[in-house]
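[User]
Protein folding is very new to me. Any chance you could explain this protein sequence and its structure tokens? I have pasted everything here:
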Amino acid sequence: MAATPDDDSVLLRRDGRVGRLVLNRPRSINALTHPMVRALDDALVAWEQDASVAAVVLSGAGERGLCAGGDIRAMREDVLAGGSGAQDFWRDEYRLNARIARYPKPFVAAMDGIVMGGGVGVSAHGGIRVVTERSTVAMPEVAIGFVPDVGGTWLLARAPGELGTHLALTAGRMGPGDALLCGFADHFVPAARLGPFLEALAEIEPQQAVAEFAGTAPESALAAQREWIDTCYAADSVEEIVERLRSSGVPEAKEAADLILDHSPTALEATLALLRRARSLSGLEQALDQEYRVACALAAASPDFAEGVRALVVDKDRSPRWSPRTLEDVAQEDVECLFAPLGDGELGLAEG
């Protein structure tokens, strides 16, 4: 059996035909630490070789959500100290994301409540992804001076039209209908039936459980906004996207422009570049390799990640001081440098 973290932040148990993974830091909405990532990976490796485990089920402790992301406070402290802990965390986290995506047994993720950032990485690459009416799914990294990662750019780049670009640049949140439309989830199970659904997996095949417990999802709020979203976000630069949003005459588009301009200019430019490049990649592993390059470069070269976490999580004044301050001040050559190969430090998933 795989080792568990000393603090029981991941609970591992066998239940009938399934192995259960429970993220167990409910006070922090199950935010991922490095030991949690390692424990999840160890369990998946062990259960892949265990013939008595027919499927794996991921859920989160508490009532607030599956996982609010990574432990960004700890990452900020490491970045400020000039350490390598954040890069080491991302390396193991992205490898876990890739393992989940290619896992040979059914991987069922209960995406109930808040599912953001790293929470998306450990759920939305699974084979059977379930949302409820309480689900809020997002890749909000630009709001903290970072970029969508954990394979999020792969998912966002493949959402219908320009919905992924809209979500990434605004740090927008998806309800269950939106998550289904955008390819972040597969099935809707009403919250009142989620417990019985998860319990049934101990005895029956996941697809049979889905057939018995799934219901009709709420409509997607984003679906009705496709026309202006697809038109405005098809532009080649963040500046032009903002201009199209402001001049569209659509109130929701102007609101989106205001949201975008609140975020880190460097993170916005890097995010758009990541998304556009992800469209031409051949698989999730390539996207994770690309995200790792940019994540490491931002940690080393930009103050915005540390500043964004300070403003939104540490001091909570919601007044980040970005550097550079405006989109016009971000040099394109600096954005290109974020994608530079890391030499011996490459993640190298696409080569494996």
About this structure: The radius of gyration is 20 Å. The chain has one domain: 10-351. The CA atoms of residues 180 and 186 lie 6 Å apart.
